[in-house]
Amino acid sequence: MRIVLASACLILMACPAKRPDVEPSNDGGPAVDAGVPAVDNLALAKTAVTDMCQFMYGCYGESRLMKAFATMGGGLVPSPEDCAEEVTEESEAVAHLAGGLESGRITVDWAAWDVCVESMECSSVFDGSARGLPCGDVVIGQVAEGDGCFSDPECQGAGVSHRCSASGSQCGTCILLSEEGVACEGDDDCRGGLTCAGEEDSPQVCTPVEPMLAAGAACNGEEGPLDGNCDMWKDLICLAEEGESEGTCTEASFDAQEGEFCFLFGGVFCVDGLVCPVTFMPDEDNPPTCRNPVEAGETCLEGEGFAFMMTPCVSGFYCHEESGTCAAQKPNGASCEEDGECAEGSCGDAGVCGARSLFGDDERGDYQQCP
User: Fold this and answer.
1) What pTM does this model have?
2) What is the enclosing helix (H) or strand (E) of 93?
3) Which of 218, 250, 267, 279 is a plausible cystine mate for 239, CB 3.0–4.6 Å?
């Protein structure tokens, strides 16, 4: 399963980080009043992106449920320690934020950063219900609607009411986002906390994102325990009486022992150290059961179609679909289709294994102060 995270600069609006202790610098940047030292905006930007990286990667460490789904195809679970390698002063995400700070197109209420970080919830960041809202008064864009911009944080009301239309290495303009009920083509058309959605055969409109439900909340698990919109970042699933769809958000139990039935999409999980084969349709004659990861060269894939059953391999290996056996993960530069095939956990858009750098390069090139 590919781990999908938003870009650092976009998320930074929702959760800035702590202000670092940096030495004053007078190299470049806008003029400052006499007696007021300039700050090292590059160091500030690096620390901000690093702290955001650590927060988001830390979410996976706090959730056994999300960790189970992240690793079921051989993928790597991101760790806050990874941020030291992924975020550097040469990272484009850092350089772009530093450019906005240096040019005065982005200002930050550094004193409010601690409060922002401490108030963040993993679920609200990942489900989009609070997109741009929690800390919109901390990272403040200075570019007005219709004026040139390079990134979203430069716009006034960034992520809440406006965004930057820039793409690739091109400049854009700050544009107004649509309100609830207005027709849309994608989530990027809608204001913070809204998503572009619609019933089948009906026009899509900007609609409020439903926040994930807390423990004890009523839920509807018509399609299964994972279908009730319970907060999976807090290991909650929708449990209902047999034959019923209405249930309650309840903490998942990871207590199935070796040889006992398990079903990831059915809310039945194994104890730590054991894995549960992945399947969408358990076979009554050969049901998925908790077991040890499959060793190199051994069979990891059984069945066909929706009745397939794939058992995760030991560390450093992935389940090769054609042979149905565990094969060594591929080095950087090798062709790939899924993240789990790659030793460093990332199959890029070009279908080539590489180092995971979710908070590093964004392939937009050097920062530009757009007219």
Assistant:
1) 0.79
2) helix 92-103
3) 250
